[in-house]
Please model this.
Amino acid sequence: MSESPKDKFEELFRMQQSLNERIGVRTSGMSEEEQTKWLLNYTRAMNQELAELTDSVPWKWWAKYQKFDAQNAKVEVVDLFHFLISMAQVLGMSADDVFTAYLKKNEVNFKRQDSGYTTKDAEDSRHI
Model:
């Protein structure tokens, strides 16, 4: 295996863009109509991947035949990343944009926990 890229998150975004373009989806410069279409496509795909992840876990408490399939669960998590990165790219977000937004949202979440998160405040995330 070749040397690992310096910025793995950035590399995931690069690889996903390459795959999307190979499939025929150019996420940059999309119209609002195209963004809406692809955000819905990716959301639907992620819902399916979540269902597949759920099926990797013995969630049917009434069924005795189920087994935990950790390997498949890992694959489904990776599938979710494919679509999540694609959604970010549809919205014009780079790996750096997602990282910066994550840092800000993480800070908000910690503040919510510090305050007991007793009330919903939609405005506390508007700056992200």
